[in-house]
Write a structure and sequence with these properties.
heterodimer, A: mainly beta, Phage tail protein beta-alpha-beta fold, 4 domains, 10 helices, disordered N terminus, B: Immunoglobulin-like, 4 helices, 29 strands
Chain lengths: 926, 387
């Protein structure tokens, strides 16, 4: 990589790519008087008189000297005099950026006459040239398509073959070699398109002949390739991706794919977008940004639990490179446990969940890490008020193998020191570590390794200590059999657990722990049959091992009796297949089926209860013992995943979908928010799997050259056997949890509107959701019915929800972001009366969730300031400075009544009751 | 868990904020019967309190007057309780048969009958000790109990704290209010006791008693033996409670599992709220039912045990570094009606400056009432148990 004067050029290219042809203003006249001036002096002079900005390679042009005397001379003439003589090539784009180079640019072989008279035609200053421009020393690999206007011949001309040719390859970032996932690869005539998988791999079946292949994705410039297909072949395409954090404008991958894809209700965010959104304490937080998307809610600010389209927080499958993260929160839910520096993109499926995913009712949040830089060692560090992080990445073997190692930690204890005396001894800390390695063994085989570790500890004034953590490991092997068939095999191990111990009272000092482990194997195949059918299919196998609770004495004086709730084991298998069927150029169908089967396995002892009467500990009929490995109970059935898309025109489509889901693992939590002490329970003969289905319909329309995306989605969803809890339910150390739970039905419906501007100085989105989530528990045999068996709103039923996220880029070094959200207050149960008992007045409650807390409104603001952009320096700094809750709104998190000193007092609790300023320093180094 | 939740609350308050909230919701008049108390199978007092639930905004207790309350045995015995004050029903020395089951029966003024389920007499071991120790600068009190038969399992405690109060100043004076010839009010400081000019000791020695206001329960179900030591109360450093002599009387009840659960739910619903992770309020598993309308909500769980009591004293002498500080100061006021009216009506006189010749009170010292008259803070009647 040769040094640039400004690597800002990449930022500009994004704009230029959108603007098309441009030219020098022939009326523009300038005055110049230079004698043996350097390029810098020349540019300075010209920039001071015109709106043009000049970009060039200092190394190339530093030796050039310029002499000119010009008075009110047209720009074109000046350029002619200056550049033709010196054999300097120039081009101009519509944004008035002038690019200069001394070497003839590949694919921009411009005759002198072009320079002399026809700058308009010389403006092939399109993207690809600058890809080359930035990489002049890079050897051109014949297979690495670099230029837009070169004609690529694929296959053997002499081979007489099929009329349908399969073209496959990888889309990669030209600078770092990272694959570009989720990119759309398509031709316009006839309309045929695919998207790249998470390794950047694509395979597309096209008619024999000449085509223009388009590649579009989040964070890369659009790429066009002219290809002539003779027989099956490969073509890797390098695209100019986002570099460093200079590029502040994100081009959405979905500018066309949101109209084209069959999948509904999928939201994709790239990390750049995530980083722009202001957040509390300034630590970029994926889950917080996800909550700004339509259809996603949380109960409040101290919760990272997501409620997607009316689902509870345990109904989301949170995957980090295929690993299930059971607790995605750090520090009481204030931060999510994903290091933003290592994330490439986040996809949230909330309606059409692909058949390859299963096991959760509401959504799949698929978080994909970046791959390390395959070309050079780089790193970054961030320093914030509560957290800091360091990441290192680089090649293990150049262009073949790379790694990223990232870690975050906190130093939040200062916060406690600010608190009243009795909390001074408290501590809370967390860390997370990620190691991601990928190795391209050969062109058909790639191996990926992901390791993830997160840990939280907090100690409450030396009384009770809490700790929890995730451990995850996975190995993935991608193999390409042929252009038509490739596979992904993944094996991994996930673990989550927590411990609580208390030593204050020696006689009852204890340690309580919970743990869940799962090992899994996934095989996923993608088979491109022809340009009408592409099938993906595979199998998932998941073995659960769950220790619901170990309660043990701590210390020699402790009288605590060791109590262990019997371990649970289960096997969840699924076979699935989806046919992506292009019926015609307008109609496309994704028909998927997932056959899932869940078997609870011995050893375990299962209680039986009489049917038709409430399950209580008193009416256990018998307890059946199952031996090791025996099947206790099998649940299973088909899950349907259907999606249909009808394209009305290029920018306008309609979609419909039907989805059904099964969930065999349930979190046991009767709290409003997701608490770190929530435990999980596997289905067994007494706990049925949760089931749900959803129908949805959507209208998608893009405007202004796809830079404005609009969508409207409607959904209706049913849930069954969702777990609620009886009054006074004991969730921890309960040997017969089935006596304390209630199977609840739920229904959710809503409308989601999204308007997204993906490009330009001003970008961002507005989302509005109207939705309801209603639950009902009306089974009289359960022993207790809630709200007389009527439907009642769930904790996260917030009908109106409006979010605005806007970013404005003033210059390449300065941008601001603004985030505002409004929602209806969440339902709460308020007391209806008081009574006296135990020396105090106490509150009387009646119907559940009959009232609401006041509406929620919050505005955040942040500024991002980049340091200087000289690429050859060792460090690049950037600052983000912002204010969370700018208006200091005291948004109630909850309203509660408590008996204190004999009286009942009502309080309104706001988590962030003031404007919270923050500052973060980010450093990149190499 | 509880601790954790409370703690979190505090953490968030540190960053966030907690404001008083008055519900705009107009709550319905409920008027459900609330029955508090336990049947004391031993020689001591059985106290049953009847009240009604009232509107949230009222914040007052509606005691249920004029009900008939009986302790009924499964052997058809029935003993009536006496209404000692509105809604409070008392009987002493039931001395019940430990082998029989008993229930509470209530006939309210409006003629409805309420009955608790029959409950067996629960064994209740004597309190081993009520102990205290310094934790930091604070004083922490514990109750310690064990059941050699290992079958009590569920406990509840209530306590009443009593402490002695001394006024900061002795007072020999009082104001005399009169009328002058023009009909205007006049003030003067005179001796309390014109015979010996001695101080009014009823303003100097007082005692204050406070009952516990939170529900304290304990269980030994997860312990190898039925031994419990439970923290009762933390007296924060330099509190006035321990300034002279302090006493705590602890009453211990043994509970059925049902009553334990009832109290746990009540504690969770009414004292354990306000964390970030609040659960939905629980319904009460009352064991008292309205016979004529089984669906009428009644709050109360009555069972039977021999109530145990234990009293301890803590003397200031055992806390040499205890440093309760009441800031009090006096001002000198001329014993002139106008001066008193202007400067001293919000103060109380303490002792005089007399003319050595005439003995007339020329001026006097005065201090804020709480420094002079302890009756403002407690009662001047010495409790019978006080040493």
């Amino acid at each position: 990589m040769k040094p640039f004067k400004y690597i800002l050029v990449f930022g500009f290219l994004i704009f230029s790519s959108l603007k098309g042809q441009a030219q020098l203003d022939s009326t523009q006249k300038i005055n110049l008087a230079l004698n043996n001036a350097s390029i810098q002096e020349l540019v300075k002079n010209m920039e001071s008189q015109t709106e043009y900005h000049f970009y060039f390679d200092t190394a190339q042009l530093s030796k050039k000297r310029f002499t000119i005397q010009a008075t009110k001379m047209p720009m074109l003439q000046v350029f002619n005099i200056l550049f033709t003589e010196q054999k300097i090539y120039f081009s101009v784009d519509k944004e008035e950026h002038v690019f200069l180079a001394s070497t003839p640019l590949p694919n921009l072989i411009l005759p002198d006459s072009y320079f002399a008279g026809n700058a308009k035609n010389a403006t092939a200053s399109n993207n690809a040239n600058y890809s080359n421009f930035s990489e002049p020393d890079e050897p051109l690999n014949a297979q690495e398509a670099l230029a837009d206007n070169k004609l690529y011949e694929i296959g053997e001309k002499s081979l007489a073959g099929a009329n349908i040719i399969t073209l496959a390859g990888y889309i990669k970032d030209i600078r770092t070699g990272e694959p570009i996932a989720g990119a759309s690869v398509y031709i316009d005539k006839p309309r045929i398109g695919v998207s790249t998988d998470q390794n950047g791999y694509y395979a597309i079946s096209l008619p024999k002949g000449k085509h223009i292949l388009n590649v579009q994705s989040l964070g890369i410039r659009d790429v066009k390739r002219q290809v002539v297909l003779y027989s099956d072949g490969k073509m890797n395409i390098e695209a100019t991706g986002s570099i460093m954090s200079l590029k502040k404008v994100t081009i959405s991958a979905q500018k066309i794919s949101n109209v084209r894809g069959t999948i509904m209700g999928v939201q994709k965010l790239d990390i750049k977008t995530v980083k722009q959104v202001p957040v509390v304490f300034g630590e970029a937080d994926i889950l917080r940004v996800v909550t700004t998307l339509p259809g996603v809610k949380t109960v409040g600010e101290a919760s990272t639990g997501l409620n997607v389209r009316g689902g509870s927080s345990d109904q989301n499958l949170i995957l980090f490179n295929d690993a299930t993260i059971y607790n995605p929160a750090h520090f009481f839910g204030m931060f999510s446990s994903f290091n933003p520096e290592l994330i490439n993109n986040v996809e949230l499926y909330k309606s059409s969940i692909p058949a390859s995913y299963g096991g959760r009712l509401s959504s799949v949040l698929d978080i994909t890490s970046r791959e390390g830089n395959k070309k050079e060692f780089t790193g970054s560090a961030g320093i914030g008020l509560l957290t800091s992080r360091v990441n290192i990445e680089g090649p293990l073997e150049k262009d073949k193998s790379s790694f990223i190692l990232g870690g975050r930690s906190t130093y939040s204890n200062w916060l406690f020191n600010l608190m009243p005396g009795e909390y001074k001894n408290s501590k809370a800390d967390f860390y997370d570590l990620n190691l991601i390695i990928n190795n391209q063994i050969d062109k058909n085989n790639t191996l990926y390794f992901t390791g993830y570790l997160s840990n939280d500890h907090f100690n409450l004034n030396s009384d009770t200590a809490y700790g929890y953590g995730n451990k995850n490991m996975s190995v993935k092997w991608k193999h390409i059999y042929s252009n038509k068939l490739n596979s992904l095999m993944t094996a991994g191990y996930d673990s989550y657990g927590y411990q609580i111990n208390s030593q204050r009272l020696p006689l009852s000092a204890y340690q309580l722990s919970f743990g869940i482990q799962q090992t899994y194997f996934k095989a996923h195949f993608i088979y491109n049959i022809n340009n009408k059918h592409s099938i993906d299919f595979g199998l998932n196998s998941l073995y659960y091992n769950l220790a619901p609770g170990n309660y043990e004495p701590l210390g020699s004086k402790s009288l605590v009796v060791k109590d262990i709730v019997a371990k649970e084991q289960a096997l969840e298998n699924a076979l699935y297949a989806t046919d992506h069927f292009t019926i015609n150029s307008k109609l496309k169908l994704d028909a998927g089926i997932r056959l899932s089967a869940f078997s609870a396995l011995g050893p375990n002892a299962i209680n039986t209860y009489p049917t038709g009467s409430p399950r209580t500990a008193d009416n256990i009929l018998s307890t059946v013992n199952y031996t090791n490995g025996s099947i206790i109970k099998t649940y299973g059935g088909p899950e349907f995943r259907l999606g249909l898309r009808y394209v009305i025109d290029e920018t306008f489509s309609l979609k419909a979908g039907y989805n059904s889901q099964r969930q065999y693992i349930h979190s046991l939590s009767n709290t409003t928010a997701m608490a770190p002490t929530d435990i999980w329970k596997l289905s067994d003969p007494n706990i049925k799997p949760q089931t749900g289905d959803q129908i949805s319909f959507g209208i998608y329309k893009n405007m202004k050259s796809n830079t404005i995306e609009t969508s409207l989605e409607l959904y209706y969803k049913n849930m069954d056997n969702y777990l609620d809890f009886k009054s006074g339910a004991k969730l921890v150390m309960n040997h017969h949890i089935e006596t304390d739970v209630l199977g609840t039905q739920g229904k959710a419906y809503g409308v989601e509107l999204l308007v997204k501007k993906t490009a330009g100085k001003l970008n961002g989105w507005i989302s509005y959701t109207w939705s309801r989530v209603l639950l009902r528990m009306n089974d009289p045999t359960a022993g207790e019915i809630i709200n007389k068996g009527q439907y009642y709103p769930s904790n996260y039923d917030k009908p109106n929800d409006l979010t605005l996220i806007a970013n404005y880029k003033f210059s390449h070094r300065f941008s601001i972001s603004f985030n505002s959200s409004y929602s209806t207050g969440r339902p709460i149960t308020l007391p209806i009366g008081v009574f006296s008992y135990g020396g105090s007045l106490r509150t009387l409650y009646a119907d559940r969730n009959a009232y609401r807390i006041p509406d929620y409104f919050r505005t955040d603001f942040s500024m991002n300031i980049e340091g200087n952009h000289k690429i050859n320096q060792l460090m690049h700094n950037s600052w983000s400075i912002g204010v969370y809750n700018l208006t200091g709104q005291r948004n109630p998190y909850s309203i509660y009544y408590v008996s204190e000193k004999g009286a009942v007092n009502g309080y309104k609790l706001s988590i962030f009751g003031a404007a919270i300023p923050y500052i973060n320093l980010n450093i990149r180094f190499k | 868990m509880k601790k954790y939740l409370n703690y979190l609350l505090l953490l968030f308050i540190a960053i966030g904020c907690k404001e008083k909230y008055i519900s705009p919701v107009v709550s319905p008049a409920t008027g459900y019967l609330v029955v508090e108390g336990i049947i004391n199978s031993g020689a001591g007092e059985t106290n049953i309190t009847l009240s009604r639930t009232s509107k949230l905004s009222s914040q007052t207790v509606l005691f249920e007057q004029g009900a008939k309350v009986f302790v009924q045995g499964e052997d058809n015995t029935s003993i009536g309780l006496k209404e000692s004050s509105t809604g409070h029903f008392v009987i002493t020395g039931l001395n019940l048969n430990n082998a029989k089951k008993y229930r509470l029966s209530i006939v309210t003024k409006d003629g409805k009958t309420y009955q608790s389920d029959f409950s067996a007499v629960k064994n209740n071991p004597v309190i081993d000790s009520v102990s205290w120790r310094r934790e930091g600068r604070d004083v922490q009190l514990y109750v310690n109990t064990h059941d050699p038969n290992n079958n009590t399992k569920y406990y509840q405690w209530e306590y009443a704290e009593t402490w002695e109060i001394h006024s900061y100043y002795l007072s020999t004076l009082k104001y005399k209010v009169g009328t002058n010839s023009k009909g205007a009010t006049t003030y003067s400081a005179v001796y309390n006791d014109s015979t010996n000019y001695g101080p009014d000791m009823t303003k100097y020695f007082c005692w204050k008693t406070e009952p516990s206001t939170s529900i304290m329960t304990g269980t030994t179900t997860n312990l190898a033996s039925d031994v419990i030591n439970l923290p009762l109360i933390n007296i924060s450093a330099d509190s006035w409670k321990l300034n002279i002599l302090y006493s705590m009387n602890v009453r211990q009840y043994s509970l059925s599992e049902g009553r334990y659960e009832f109290l746990q739910r009540m504690k969770k619903n009414t004292e354990g709220t306000g964390s970030v992770f609040d659960a939905q309020p629980s319904e009460y598993n009352s064991n008292i039912h309205c016979l004529s309308n089984p669906n009428e909500p009644v709050i109360g769980y009555v069972d039977v045990c021999n109530v145990q009591e234990k009293r301890i004293f803590i003397n200031r002498k055992s806390l040499p570094d205890w440093n309760y500080n009441q800031s009090c100061s006096e001002v000198e006021i001329p014993n002139v009606s106008d001066s008193i009216a202007i400067k001293a009506l919000f103060l109380l006189p303490t002792y005089p400056n007399t003319d050595p010749m005439t003995g007339r009170i020329i001026s006097f010292f005065a201090a804020p009432p709480e420094c002079v008259d302890c009756k403002l803070k407690g009662s001047s009647t010495k409790p019978s148990f006080w040493p």
